[in-house]
Each structure stands twice: as structure tokens, then as C-alpha cells.
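cron nightly-structures :: item 1 of 1
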Amino acid sequence: MRNHVRNIHSFGDNYLFKDTALSLNKGEHIGIVGQNGAGKSTLIKFCTGQLIPDCGRIVWQPNTKLGYLDQYAQIDKHTTMKVFLQSAFSELYEIEKQMNELYSQSVDGNKFKLNTAAKYQEELERNDFYLIDTKIEQVATGLGLMAVGLDRPIEQMSGGQRAKVILAKLLLEQSDVLLLDEPTNFLDREHVIWLAEYLSGLQNAFMVVSHDYDFLEKISTRICDIDNEKISKYFGSYSEFKRKKTLLREDYIRQYAAQQKTIKKTEEFIRKNIAGRKSKMARGRQKQLDRMEKMEAIEQKEIKPIFRFPTVPLTSTEHLRVQHLDVGYHYPVLSDVNFSIKGGEKVVITGFNGIGKSTLLKTLINQIPLLGGNFHFSEQVKIGYFEQDLSWTDTTRTPIQIVSDAYPSLVIKDIRKRLAGCGISSKHAMQEIGTLSGGEQAKVKVCLLMLKPCNFLIMDEPTNHLDILAKEALKTALSEFDGTVLLVSHEEVFYRGWTNKLINVEKKK
């Protein structure tokens, strides 16, 4: 199975890929890397047909079954997790239904119906139909869903649990090609390890977008690097790709410098001799120069954002007290939560995904009502909140318009400057927010947060979509922030070293 990508660009005159190609061969395990905004998620959407390239084409071999991870897929909220996961085998359940009908209709010994039913049964056995429950339990256990309960209705699940259920179904479907965009965002470390082992053992092909480079190192046999509007495919692991890319880049820079030196020397000769005795030689040199295939300068597109959160005065007195708090929607997902935070403390909340960490934060900012107990912020607290969901009132608004709507007093020049400081290029600042990558959308959210002075930052998984440069910049900004920080994060490498208090809601301490 192969897919070809050529001459693709998108969003008006803003090129993402230009005069480039990619092939996916049978059994290849490809990790897709590149900076936020390079086009990783867009490439996946081209491959699934969600987006159509302006020119060029995507070609799949006939009858190739694609499996795409859509974390926002619509699910019947009344169905249970088990029923939803069983739908991955809907074709087999339909065959079983037909088989049972034929057996019930052949009580008179109708050989044709009996033979047809027997063939259906052989097909079911060939496809391990009678092991479906075992397969479901294996995948559900690997992703940490058994603790939730297979009979739990979807409507009673957190966003993280729901995302894991969608991933579980996708893995059970056993598609010819898996297309996964940031599959580890809602997974705890132990479940990331399980997923890496699962994917590594697949015989089928897959393409995975991820900023978790340890994860890519374990699962990838090829790396697709999106850089400078080109898609380059490297054979080997992620670490091998980094080494090869560095060597190739250094070699290209040497060749480019040598060519530029030759061009400059030739142009100097032509300028001096075009009207003199050596004019014929100069014209010949000009023809050589015109025919020369000139190398393009490597553009430095890596934009390292600089985040800084302005603070308002605070004291070291108690800023937040939580007592016997119950949080949830229809019923408590977290009960009897107790903790306090003093001004200036940097606190991280941990616990397995789906336990209710995001629900706790939404309760504290009064986005959802508490179910029991109480909490109290001191009067001097001014809250700044970062929500992990990338939702916007109007996805057709540009980052410039969104910031301008929120802060009408800012002039456009200042808005551009602030967005650029957060790593948003001038091109992307004028693009519809719905067309930007998750990382760029997260940077716009951080930019909005930076424009609102506060002394108590509440952040829910802010690193989910950020590339490594943006993560480092955010880590620095939070460690230098003079106010209080309450952070939910599953990335220990991100919060280790600058937080001074850990609240494990799983163990209620």
C-alpha cells in the first residue's frame, strides 16, 4: 500500500508543502515530526480526505482500510464503553446474526442453509470472533480503562477517558493503515509504554504525529520530517534521524557556501570583462551561470517563543483552601478532596487520566457547580486560566482578530508583536484559528493569558500540543512567575524541578 503526496499547499498563498512527495509502504511504521505549524496534522487530514490539496494528489491502493484517530468523534452518549468497543467488530456480529438465523431456519435439515451457516461459522472462527471479549479486555487494560468499568456509559466519562475509548476502538478495528495524531496526549506514562509496545508489534503500517520523542524512538522504523515546505523521509529510528539530519544539514550548508563563493567569483569576472577583450568568455560564463541549478538558502524557521506572565502583588498567606470537595457532573468523580495553597507556591496535581483532575479545575473556576464540600480563594487572588480543550467561539477568526476582540484597546501592530513573541508567525497570525495546528492554537491561548495580569495561574495540561521549544519556554515562564501556579500535567519531565508541592488526587494527599 502506498500513498503519494505531491505539490501540496493549503490556505490561500500560504504554502505548507511545495513540490514534495511521500510514500507509505506496507508494514512501515512512520513517525511524523516538525515544529508547531509545519503541517503535521494537515498531512494526516490530507491522507484521510478531510482536506483536499490545491494541487497534487493522494493515492491509496484499492481496498486499503484506513483507521484515523479522531479524539472529537461523535459517540452516542447513552451507549456503554463495552458496546462501543464491540462496534469495532460490527461486521462479524452481523455474520453471527445471519448464521444464527440460518441455523434456526434449517430445523427441517435444509442442507443449503446448513452449509451456508457452517461457512459463516468458519469465517467467524478464522477471525477470532469468539475471542472478542478477551481482545477488548486486553486493550482496555492496556489503556487503563478497566478501572473505569466496561459497563460505564460514555456520558459519565471525562474527556480523557472518552479519548482513550476512541483510541481503544481504533486499535481493535485492525485497519490496514493507522493514522494517529498525538495519541499519547491523554495517556499516563504506563499506558504510553503499553501503546508503544502494541504499535511496535503491529504488522500493519501506521503514521503517528507526536511530540513525545521517547515514544517515537520506540515505535518508529521511519521518520517523516516536515521542514521548510519539504517532506523528507529518513530510514531508521528517531535518534538515527536526528543524527542523519544534522550531518545532511551541515553538508548542505558547506555545499551552499561553496556555490555562493563560485557565483560571486563568476559574477565579478563577468562584470569586469563583459565589455572588454574577454567579452566572449564573459558571455560564456554568464550562460553557465544561467544554467546552474542554484541551491536555496536554508531558512531558519524555528521560532523560539518567549513567554512571560505579568503578575499583580500578592502575599504568602493562604490563597486557596479546599475542604471535603466533591466534583463531577451527574455524580462525583472525585470525593472528599482537601488541600490548601499559599501565595507563591507552585503546585502540580497528579493522578491517572480520567480520575477528575480537569473536572476539579473547572469546579474551582466555577465553570461547573460543586457537588459537595467547599473551596475558598482569598480576596487578593486574580485568576488566569488555561483550558486544555482547543475550543473557540468562532473558528473562522484569526489570532489577530481573537486577541483584538479580547483586548480592543491594543493596536494591530502591538498584537502582531505579542503573537510573534509567542511563536506565531505573521502568516499564521492572519490564518483562521481552525486551520492552525494544536500547538499554534495553544500558543494563542497562552498569548491571551499573558495579556491578563494575575497572581494565580491555573493551567490544565498546557503542554499537550506544544513542541519542545515551546515547552521549554513555558517551563521557564512558570518557574519565573512570581505568583501562584496550580498545574495539571502528565509530563513529569515538564514539571520536575520548579514545582514545590505535589497533590496526588488518586491517593488524596
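cron nightly-structures :: done
The mean pLDDT is 87.
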